[in-house]
């Protein structure tokens, strides 16, 4: 800087403006040396201001870019181990569902006591960490989370006693909710009977193992739908005429020599005025396709599991390829019904999106009545969407059983459920509870294993652990991915339970155990419900079994 200032003060006179030049130019034109001097001090001042404001926008942008590069580097170094964690999740989820086939009740109680043990250990560990940090004379016990602000290294928060106090309170709240739930909900005879239903119904998956891999087909179809929507949206957004403008200039007159740069796509034609409407139409089609893909999967699984239930002799009467046969029937005969049900749900979801958009626009408004009306409409459409999802799911099951149209199937399913509302409520609650525990247990177990691995706390494989900037990046990825994989597997199990339960209700209402109308439920359920098939029918079946094999029904 000293040399620069000397050059500015004693520079060559030929680089300064002469008196004649000053007369021919504007009087306020500065010399080259003065320009450089002002530029130097301006840059110095700007740099000083930026350095004195660490939380400014530019610094935050640079920090975010640096953090993003580190996260990308962590993914590049740990992707192999992330895939291994997800494969372990698939194996554990498959084993969990197969165990439900034999020991649903025992496994449920093991999960309950396992969660109690995990919560109890969490409370003890949080209290121990809290006491240790508070006991340090010059430690971080008195520092709060608000004092240190946001930190990318989460290990900083683990050195604060306040963090462990929050964890301990959260564990205590979970323990109280857990005890209340167990006390009031899982000690009555209907719930015990529902657990028996789950144990019996889960045998169907053992006979139709291919259904566990159908979520892969759904995932591929959903990826195609998302790609179609994204490509169409980009084409619509860029379908206008390219508009060029002169940017960053203070000249208010016509400047034919200036260079125009691209600004945006637009236009004044009728087509360009309705681009937003076309984008909304594209969004509606996207929702329709997504719901149709999900409906196709539900109807396919329902048809496969229904073929298991309505086989009088299991597994002899089960079709050879029940999943493929059900998929073929759904595509060939039930496409219109599935599309109609998906369209109803897509329209309701579209209304919800429009209401969210209006609520976002009205946040700054002072019209309390309008905001209250929007909130009421959002609540009503939320309830309507969940009701339609529930009805569509059961309507698709009835379509797979009887092959009727959507409206007739929805009506039959609704009245069938209303005639057995207590059984439906209890079984649905127990199933949701069991599957939620399974998802949490699997994702939590894999997450704990990933935590010990990425933090180098497993002595056997410490050398295999990659070097990471933030160990929580692959850890959170494994936990989130494990939950999604478990969710996909357990959705198949939930569809199995719903389908077989509806078949069971239809079996109770339609059949009476006679030779013409025998019960198709298992012998265990018949004994519990005190239902019997006619003796003549049993003799006929026994005679046939002597030729073909042992009767298992």
UniProtKB/TrEMBL annotation:
It catalyses: choline(out) + n H(+)(in) = choline(in) + n H(+)(out). GO terms for cellular component: plasma membrane. It is found in: Cell membrane. Its main location: membrane. One of its GO terms (molecular function) is antiporter activity. It comes from the Eukaryota. Coiled coil: none annotated. It is a multi-pass membrane protein. The chain crosses the membrane at residues 37-58, 79-100, 106-128, 192-210, 216-237, 283-310, 330-348, 369-388, 433-455, 467-486. Keywords: Antiport, Cell membrane, Glycoprotein, Membrane, Transmembrane, Transmembrane helix, Transport. PANTHER family: CHOLINE TRANSPORTER-LIKE (SLC FAMILY 44), CHOLINE TRANSPORTER-LIKE PROTEIN 5. Choline/H+ antiporter. Belongs to the CTL (choline transporter-like) family. This is Choline transporter-like protein.
């Amino acid at each position: 800087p000293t040399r620069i200032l000397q050059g500015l003060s004693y520079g060559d006179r030929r680089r300064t403006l002469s008196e004649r030049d000053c007369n021919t130019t504007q009087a306020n034109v500065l010399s080259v040396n003065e320009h450089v001097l002002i530029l130097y001090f301006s840059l110095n001042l700007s740099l000083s201001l930026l350095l004195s404001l660490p939380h400014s926008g530019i610094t935050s942008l640079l920090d975010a870019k640096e953090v993003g590069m580190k996260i990308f580097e962590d993914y590049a170094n740990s992707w192999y181990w992330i895939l291994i964690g997800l494969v372990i999740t698939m194996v554990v989820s498959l084993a969990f569902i197969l165990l439900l086939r034999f020991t649903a009740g025992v496994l449920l109680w093991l999960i309950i006591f396992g969660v109690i043990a995990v919560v109890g250990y969490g409370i003890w560990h949080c209290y121990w960490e809290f006491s240790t940090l508070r006991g340090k004379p010059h430690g971080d016990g008195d520092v709060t989370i608000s004092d240190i602000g946001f930190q990318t290294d989460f290990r900083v928060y683990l050195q604060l006693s306040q963090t462990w106090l929050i964890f301990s309170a959260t564990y205590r709240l979970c323990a109280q909710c857990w005890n209340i739930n167990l006390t009031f909900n899982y000690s009555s005879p209907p719930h015990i009977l529902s657990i028996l239903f789950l144990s019996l119904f889960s045998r169907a998956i053992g006979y139709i193992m291919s259904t566990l891999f159908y979520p892969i087909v759904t995932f591929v179809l959903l990826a195609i739908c998302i790609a179609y929507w994204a490509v169409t949206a980009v084409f619509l957004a860029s379908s206008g005429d390219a508009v060029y403008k002169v940017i960053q200039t203070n000249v208010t007159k016509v400047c034919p020599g200036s260079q125009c740069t691209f600004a945006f796509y637009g236009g004044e034609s009728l087509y360009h005025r309705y681009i937003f409407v076309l984008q909304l139409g594209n969004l509606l089609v996207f929702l329709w396709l997504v719901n149709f893909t999900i409906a196709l999967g539900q109807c396919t699984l329902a048809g496969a599991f229904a073929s298991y239930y309505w086989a009088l002799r299991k597994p002899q009467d089960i079709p050879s390829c029940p999943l493929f046969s059900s998929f073929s029937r759904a595509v060939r005969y039930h496409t219109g019904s599935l599309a109609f049900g998906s369209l109803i749900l897509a329209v309701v979801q579209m209304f919800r999106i429009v209401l969210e958009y209006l609520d976002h626009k009205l946040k700054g408004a002072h019209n309390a009545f309008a905001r209250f009306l929007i909130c009421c409409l959002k609540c009503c459409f939320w309830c309507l969407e969940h009701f339609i999802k529930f009805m569509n799911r059961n309507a698709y099951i009835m379509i797979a059983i009887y092959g009727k149209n959507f409206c007739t199937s929805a009506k039959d399913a609704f009245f069938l459920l209303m005639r057995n509302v207590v059984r439906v409520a209890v079984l649905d609650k127990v199933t949701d509870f069991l599957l939620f525990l399974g998802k949490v247990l699997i994702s939590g177990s894999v997450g704990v294993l990933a935590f010990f691995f990425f933090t180098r706390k497993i002595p056997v494989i410490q050398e295999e652990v990659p070097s990471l900037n933030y160990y929580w990046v692959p850890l959170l990825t494994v936990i989130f991915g494990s939950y999604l994989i478990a969710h996909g597997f357990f959705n198949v199990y939930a569809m199995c339970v719903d389908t077989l339960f509806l078949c069971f209700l239809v079996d109770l209402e339609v059949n009476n155990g006679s030779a013409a109308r025998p019960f198709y439920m298992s012998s265990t359920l018949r004994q519990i419900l005190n239902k019997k098939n006619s003796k003549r029918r049993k003799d006929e079946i026994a005679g046939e079994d002597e030729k073909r094999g042992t009767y298992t029904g």
